[in-house]
Amino acid sequence: MGEALGMTAAARLLWSVAVTLLAASAAPAGAQVSVTLFAGYSGSDGVENVTADTSAQVKSAASYGVTLATLLDPSRELQLQFMQQSTTVSPGGGEMPFDLTIRYLHVGGTAFVDRPVGPGLYAVGGVGATQFSPGTGGYGTEFKPSINVGMGYYFPLGERIALRAEARGYLTFVNSSGGFLCSGGCVVVLRSDAFAQFEARIGLMARF
């Protein structure tokens, strides 16, 4: 049941991104809409295993996603971002590792300081929600508020094509004093106030 709910929530996230992309593609040419497909690598901090009084480790793993952006003014963009990572959690205390899918859906933007959007450094950030979807029984899907901040570099490859390299930090406000990822009776009680991830990524951007 928990897995089915997780799949339904994931489908809703993907549908939201797809609808926004379709709407953007129908915008006037002057709107300067861009789509970036990216792949990266994300590392995470651990969470507390209350049952065994130890730390549960979240494995570093590849991440991927899509960003939709439109110009707010010559030096700033408004963005919608979807990111997903499939990783493994080692609870510790003799318990078997289990798969965990982490998804972010954020609204935010970029700022190119003292110059228009184009070659060079920029700041990036966003706010939204994180979904934690365990791949095993005994744990439940969680949705939590989150933010991200980072820096990027814009490498033009042509008039409408560019590479974007970014480093982002994500902070999810878990605030789980009673247990994290619990579904009924937890296999292991995990607890955390905040969950941090750090991502390095590169994306191919097309502007319309």
How does this structure look, described?
With 208 residues, the protein is mainly β. It has one domain (2-207): Porin, CATH 2.40.160.20. It is 12% helix and 57% strand. It contains 1 helix and 11 strands. It has one helix spanning 2-25, and strands at 33-44, 47-49, 54-58, 61-73, 76-90, 98-111, 120-134, 142-156, 161-172, 190-191, 195-207. Strands 1-4-5-6-7-8-9-11 form an 8-stranded antiparallel β-barrel.
Global outline: elongated
Q: How do the strands line up in the largest sheet?
A: 1-4-5-6-7-8-9-11
Note the main sheet: 8 strands, antiparallel, barrel
Rg calc: 18 Å
What's the number of structural domains? 1
Question: How are helices and strands ordered from N to C?
Answer: HEEEEEEEEEEE
Mean pLDDT: 83
Poorly predicted runs of 5 or more residues: 1-7, 24-29
CATH topology: Porin
The beta-strand count equals 11
**Fraction in helix:** 10-25%
Give the class-level CATH name. Answer: Mainly Beta
What is the count of helical runs? 1
Terminal CA distance: 42 Å
Q: How large a portion of the residues is in β-strands, by DSSP E?
A: over 45%
- What structural class results from the helix and strand content? mainly beta
CATH architecture: Beta Barrel
